[in-house]
Amino acid sequence: MQLTNLSLQHFRSYPKVHIDFSPSVTLLIGPNAIGKTNIIEAIFLCSTGKSFRAKKDSDIISWGDELARIKAMGINSHEEFLLELVITVGMVNGQKAPSKKYLVNNVSRRQIDFIGNFKSVLFSPSDLELVTDSPSIRRDYLNTVLVQVDREYRRNLQSYERGLRQRNSLLDRINEGTASRSQLLFWNQLLIKAGSHITETRKRYIETINAYSFSHLSYQVMYDPSVISIRRLEEYRDEEIAAKSTLVGPQRDDFIFLKRSRDISRFGSRGEQRLAVLWIKLSELEFIEKQTSERPVLLLDDIFSELDENSRKLVLDVTKKQQTIITSTEEDVVQLVGDVAKIIRL
User: pTM (2 decimals)?
Assistant: First the structure.
């Protein structure tokens, strides 16, 4: 898999920009706040349909504009592709609201059909939060990987998220006495069906990556699923009505990183935590290739300053195995990546 070029219009700090990428390694180098991560963000949006930075879709539109456009051309194992993502802000019920339009080869598609055409793995300094921060970040990580390779996972996740919103709204009405408990049956069945698929897919992913080790990196992930079933929903029914929220299901899942059976979020050094993230990103590359027979594009966003010498060497060795796009503020990285890299100074 290869990204040929990227065009942005009114995206973050870029009124307009076009970038051609090397089929091997491209290094985007420049000072902080020049817009390097904006380019990585736009590429990643083409993989997942979502930003890894913006809390709201409207945040990625340049200040003062009402439309942002991303166009990405590339080649997968089958053919050339053109992906386009258009984010607009319009008025809905008297308030500004963002909307997205997805196109594949100039044909409008649903998000579920847009995702999966281009696959990438992102490694950035903020990924340390995978180890140390809230379970929601780890759930988002699992979704980010699995939606790229599994259409059924995308479909069930979409169904589950819609059903969860409806069920929580119903719990609120039951709490207020304006709806009946019997109305939960339909949403219970929907969430159990979709949620069970999500849990099993996440479990298989974690079982697969637990078999991987790289050089000096050997970690494990322990999955802690919140299994959804009729029994558990009945067990928590009164508590859910009181809380006006669904208390079991994959929206409550978590996992922890282990080194020699030790939870490194609690007992690991910052260096060990950083290496655990490197391990899971390398494992993600292998997993996506195994599932799709295509090597995803690797996106390295200013990570070399975070790594020790051995880890730098390991990452540099990996950059040769697929197309890699790197950002950095450090001139030293130009020497590290060698003559094979295309250098773009921003």
Answer: 0.93
